[in-house]
Specification:
heterodimer; A: 438 residues; alpha+beta; Uridine Diphospho-n-acetylenolpyruvylglucosamine Reductase, domain 3; Alpha-Beta Plaits; 3 domains; 20 strands; globular; B: 245 residues; alpha/beta; Rossmann fold
Chain lengths: 438, 245
């Protein structure tokens, strides 16, 4: 029996919203029975991708299947169902001295989602994407058959599935390894820079740090364009493993759209920048505040108001980054469409996965409240990104055009052909895959 | 390990699993019992890894009354507490037409419960300790045309548990009657439930855990249900008959 629920859903950016049928899968057997008869759909995890990757007229949710099936406490290898949240894994295993090898800036995503977006974190330059920690994926294909894939087995399927936005099948289970830690504390170093040049130099200088990310003031102009706070971190070895997740505070309602305007954002950015000590300073912080600062504020997406927002994230190859980023930052501060959550990071080598976002270079992520003129403005940014051979991150996207998208991803044809040859194209579709012809 | 065990009967239900997690989290070892052992093994393994407690999966058929005594005798360690979570809802209209289906609801919800709980009560009475949690329903508070077969079986269960409560109080055994109201579970997946009145399974399990800790007699999981049912129970019959509840 198929129990559908009509719901109005969106991604984390709350744009676009779609009325759709949501089907909760009870278990593998249940999915196998219904898969031939439910038409084309997309699998949805915790709904934390920003745009339209997890929206389709039919969405299949695997979030209730969150069991841990095996754990080896000597090697740190875990096998679990795909609906488990990273936050659950952290809560269970940090006190036992294990942490995720790769985690993005929120822990409120499912393992299935982490694979589908091949997420990355502050250690990308050292440890790559989530797929680096993956040993095996168990996947249901369009005909209901179940296959395992890995770097060794069914490799093509593996390369298409990691970063494949759920378009190759339903990820049922994953086996991956955790990393051993001695403490839940992070030794953080903050480096305050005065402009983009200095920021780039700081990234190079601290390239050996395990974790690094910069908050960038995208509204500063002229000589101070690109001024940043680069934060690097290492796990401490003080033996403190007493971890308990901080209780989140909540944004109880949508902010009226006037609250976030040019002046309030500029003020916030200035205060945030000036609050940090000059030069280099050191802090000791818990892992939640280092890795997941925004998870502390429940429903923070409401601050952009009821119309939602777009997170625009692109990456440029390293040698073209300085010029390209300068151009884009100038454009943003000229338009005054700044965001106060702008994040810059230097990435490591690109992997083989067909649609993984990272490449060696600098990525910038910015939030923009949906407002008049925004989409035209983003189209202009797209052109600069293309001019410098960059690409746009699918997990954040709700609006990029097919032609802009495909120029950024050189393996796109392999992905498309693979989907076609395996009958995936007719079964797994999202608003995003249709817009981009994936 | 010398931890306490909780015996969960009808462990396949969402409320049962949520309660198993809650008790495992506070250090209990868990017996998960139902007819569908295969699915339960995964749940058991998951609980073991998450909370580092012992679990055991056992075959239990609520309708096979004859097996109950042996089932309980065979438990390697006698439990400190019991959660009776099995139940059958079905469809009222079909049950009106087919007595066998109506009987199945009554047998599952009421007769089976009496059979197994009498055996457990005897044991708890002897050791003068333990607790029993029975999942009943607000549907038992007043008969209504839309679900009175299910409702009456739960009314029977509630009254039965009330009696146990009375009897076992002297033996230091606590009996908790749970009336969850709407809960978002497999059983109700096809219904369109009003979200303000609908609890999540983990809300039910937290309420159960607290109910035992505070020695409550009856809990409505969302307190609004207490008022709704007070209203429904106290509506004069001549008006109530005209409603379509």
């Amino acid at each position: 029996m198929v129990n559908k629920k009509k719901m109005k859903l969106s991604g984390w950016g709350r744009y676009p919203k779609l009325i759709l049928d949501l089907i909760n899968i009870k278990n593998e057997k249940h999915l196998k029975i219904i898969i031939p008869s439910i038409g084309n759909f997309i699998t949805r995890g915790n709904g934390r991708s920003y745009g339209d990757s997890s929206l389709s007229s039919i969405c299949v949710s695997n979030i209730k299947n969150n069991k841990i099936l095996e754990f080896n406490n000597k090697t740190g290898v875990i096998r679990c169902e795909s609906g488990i949240l990273l936050s659950e894994i952290i809560e269970i295993f940090v006190p036992r001295g294990w942490f995720l090898k790769v985690t993005p800036g929120t822990k409120l995503i499912t393992v299935g989602g982490a694979i589908a977006s091949d997420v990355h974190g502050k250690n990308h330059h050292k440890d790559g994407c989530f797929s680096t920690s993956l040993i095996e994926i168990r996947l249901m294909l369009s005909d209901g058959s179940i296959v395992n894939c890995s770097q060794q087995k069914n490799k093509e399927l593996f390369l298409a599935t990691c970063g494949g936005m759920g378009l190759t099948g339903v990820i049922l289970e994953a086996t991956f390894s955790l990393k051993s830690i001695l403490s839940q504390n992070i030794k953080q170093t903050t480096i305050k820079t005065k402009n983009l040049h200095q920021t780039f130099d700081a990234f190079e200088k601290y390239a050996d740090a395990t974790y690094s990310v910069a908050w960038i003031d995208c509204l500063s102009k002229g000589d101070t364009i690109g001024r940043s706070l680069l934060m690097t971190g290492e796990f401490s070895d003080d033996g403190d493993l007493e971890y308990s997740s901080k209780k989140a505070v909540s944004v109880p309602f949508n902010f009226p759209s006037i609250v976030l305007n040019y002046f309030s954002v500029k003020l916030f950015n200035a205060l945030y920048y000036f609050k940090a000590k000059q030069g280099v300073s050191h802090q000791n912080v818990g892992l939640d505040s280092f890795f997941f600062p925004l998870d502390y504020i429940d429903s923070w997406n409401r601050i952009y108001g009821r119309n939602g927002f777009v997170q625009y994230q692109f990456i440029l190859p390293k040698k073209e980054s300085l010029e390209g980023l300068t151009k884009i930052l100038e454009k943003i501060s000229d338009m005054g469409l700044g965001s106060f959550l702008a994040v810059l990071k230097l990435y490591g080598k690109e992997n083989e996965n067909y649609l993984s976002f990272p490449m060696e270079g600098y990525s910038l992520a910015l939030d923009f409240k949906i407002q008049k003129g925004l989409f035209d403005f983003l189209k202009e940014l797209d052109q600069i990104v293309l001019e410098y051979n960059g690409r746009i991150y699918l997990a954040k996207d709700s609006r990029v055009s097919k032609s802009v998208f495909e120029k950024g991803y050189s393996n796109i044809n392999q992905f498309r052909e693979f989907r076609k040859s395996q009958g995936m194209k007719e079964k797994f579709t999202s608003l995003q895959s249709e817009r981009l012809g994936l | 390990m010398n931890s306490n065990w909780i015996l969960i009967l009808g462990a396949g239900s969402d409320i049962a699993i949520a309660t198993a997690h809650k008790y495992a989290q506070s250090g209990y070892s868990i017996y998960l019992c139902s007819r569908n052992i295969e699915e339960l093994r995964k749940e058991a393994k998951d609980i073991e890894i998450r909370y580092e407690v012992n679990t055991e999966v056992l075959y239990f058929d609520a309708l096979d009354y004859k097996s109950h005594q042996k089932f309980y005798n065979n438990l390697p360690v006698k439990p400190k507490g019991v959660l009776l979570a099995f139940g059958l809802l079905g469809e009222q209209k079909v049950q009106q037409e087919e007595f066998e289906l109506a009987k199945l609801v009554i047998d599952t919800n009421y007769v089976s419960a009496v059979s197994i709980l009498e055996i457990i009560s005897q044991s708890f009475e002897k050791t003068k300790s333990g607790f029993i949690i029975g999942i009943s329903s607000v549907a038992g508070d007043r008969g209504r045309s839309s679900n009175y077969i299910y409702g009456s079986s739960k009314a029977g269960l509630s009254t039965y548990l009330e009696g146990l409560q009375h009897r076992l109080f002297k033996s230091n055994v606590h009996v908790l009657i749970v009336k969850p109201g709407f809960v978002a579970t497999k059983m109700t997946a096809s219904m369109n439930l009003p979200s303000l009145l609908t609890a999540r399974p983990d809300e039910v399990s937290s309420a159960i855990y607290e109910g035992i800790r505070k020695k409550k007699n009856v809990i409505y999981v969302k307190s609004v249900w207490f008022f709704i049912m007070a209203l429904i129970k106290n509506t004069p019959k001549f008006i109530f008959k005209k409603t379509s509840l």
